[in-house]
Amino acid sequence: MKVKILNLILAEIAVFIVVSIAGASPLSIFIPIKFLYLIAILPPVFSLLGRNPFDFPLFVILIAITSVKVLSNSELFYSLLDALYYLGFRSFAEYLNSIFVAYKSNPNISALSALVILFSVSQISWTIEDKFEELKLEIGYPLAILGIVALVIYLFYPTVLSFRAYGFPLLFLGLIGVALIVVATYLLAST
Prior knowledge:
The chain is mainly alpha-helical. It is built from 10 helices and 2 strands. 76% of the residues lie in helices and 2% in strands.
């Protein structure tokens, strides 16, 4: 049950990330952002059906919406335009190019990475919870929390790396602190 609630929260975070990215993408020209918020209904529906709230169909929808922002910088997009030119849809290809060229400068790959990490944490915790439930072990929830901590570290790593104290990066000082705690724990346990 804890993992289901956790996965519901992860799914809603992913929907929020995707809707915020979609607002600054060419998709916002075709679909108003207020309609994209309806995607947030899917995780509770999946949960009521007894499925993982962050199930694969939701992941596919979110990846498709987020990929629109990345598409304008890809060779795939220009290959599609070339194919449309070749097939005689020159005006449609020019229309698509005129729409996507305005969004060419900022692909935002980190949103895709965060989405994949959220989905992976959700799937791993859901699977572990199912398997360990058969074995009567309670380990899925702590592993899911560990995955969320890994996601937070991934998202804030560039920011933390830029902080400095006493002329050293704070990340370096944090690693030294963790190493000292491990050494202290080992010394206390060995006596």
